Amino acid sequence: MIVSPRLVRNSFFIIPTGLIIAATDVAIAHHSIVPFDQNTFIELDGVVSEVLWRNPHVRLKMRVQNDAGEEEEWELEGDSANATARRGLTRDSISAGNRIRVAGNPSIRERRELLLTNILMPNGEEYLATERPRPWRWTEERAGVTSPDTSSDPSIFHTWSFEEAHRPREPFVFTPAAQAARAAWDPFTDMLALRCIAPGMPNAMLNPYPIEFIDEGNYIRVRIEQWEATRLIDMVSEEIPEDAPSSSLGYSIGRWEDETLIVETKQIDFSYLDDAGTPMSADVEMTERFTLSESGTRLDYEVTVTDPPNLTEPAVEDAAWRWVPGTEISPYECIPEQIEF
Fold first, then answer.
1. Which fold has domain 1-144?
2. pLDDT value at position 5?
3. Can you tell me the distance from the alpha carbon of 103 to that of 137, in angstroms, rounded to the nearest whole number?
4. Residue 289: beta bridge partners?
């Protein structure tokens, strides 16, 4: 039994999540209300006391004995119920009273909170609690996903699985007004995901869940599992129509350059650029590049955000998806977060 967290620094690579800019910022889990230190890795062994299995995040409470023999309560946060289900974990997998071992990234706020990556069940089965790429912790490495058959022409028109978390290419530089807004942001009360309010662009695309591209001739339809969002990309217009309606996802026009789909988006009616309270103006413009690999199994993503009232220069984020045949878009039934669960 592990009676206290075992720290293992730099045992995993760092995945920045969220549009974070200052050099002193620490990575934040997507849509999480708690900043986690992804440079630090700890293990806990204890008894599950509460289970909350839902979207946007699975949550557990666990009683752990510390070095002094005192019982501590830890709160554990995993990915969505959809994501854990694809990893073989469902609401029937864990119950109050189960003794489990877990591993993940601790809170940077000196709170007993953990971003779950690995779970070891009483029967010795290990599961990953995230769709982010993570190695197995206590059991042997399992066989990877069988490579898809790409003997036919490679195509973007598949359902794509998460491959690499979005990350800033260079640190974002905010205007004084944006800095003030970020400083006033309280994730425990202001985070829109807590109230199941779906994000606008670009966050609608920057999530670790499947997306699907459907060719509809004059349009490309993009289905996004998280929040059950749908985007339409106008493949006919050369410019965004003057009377284009505004929405949280904006109006998008696209064109092909070889194997790269380039998408221009304006008319975005959404208040925030990210999950950290960065404001976004109505004049924001975004350019996305979806580049298919030669094998057709990887889709690299780049989004450039231009918003002079809040960003002193265009900001660029990179991400990637992979093609895993058989992946399907699942219903996403969000339940509003209860901070005190």
1. OB fold (Dihydrolipoamide Acetyltransferase, E2P) (2.40.50)
2. 37
3. 8
4. 262, 302
State CA 161 to chain mean position distance: 12
From the CA atom positions of the chain, what is the Rg in Å? Answer: 21
Task: Answer yes or no: are the C-beta atoms of 252 and 244 closer than 8 Å.
Answer: no
Task: Tell me what the pLDDT averaged over the chain comes to.
Answer: 84
Query: Where does the chain hold its CATH 2.40.128 domain(s)?
Result: 159-323
Rounded CA separation 218/230 (Å): 16
Q: Give the 3-state secondary structure of residue 246.
A: coil
The mean pLDDT of 83-112, rounded to a whole number, is 88
Cα separation values, 211 from 21, 172, 185, Å: 26, 26, 29
- Higher per-residue pLDDT: 261 or 89: 261
The type of residue at 73 is E
Kindly tell me the sign of the dihedral angle through the C-alpha atoms of 14, 223, 197, 21.
Answer: positive
List of residues 6+ apart from 173 with CB closer than 8 A: 21, 311, 312, 313
Q: Where in the chain is the domain with CATH 2.40.50.140?
A: 1-144
Q: For 66, which DSSP code?
A: -
> Per-residue pLDDT tens for 276-333?
899 999 999 999 999 999 999 999 999 999 999 999 999 999 999 999 888 889 888 7
Torsion angle (degrees, nearest 10) of CA 305, 322, 107, 122: 160
Topology given in CATH for the domain delimited by 159-323: Lipocalin (2.40.128)
Q: What is the pLDDT of residues 135-153, one digit of tens each?
A: 888 987 655 445 555 555 6
Looking at residue 91, its pLDDT comes to: 84
User: Is the overall model pTM greater than 0.70, yes or no?
Assistant: yes
Token pair, residue 28, equals: 């934040």
Most confident of 50-59, 100-109, 119-128, 228-237: 228-237
What number of residues does the chain have? 341
Torsion angles phi and psi, residue 236, rounded to 5: -105, -50
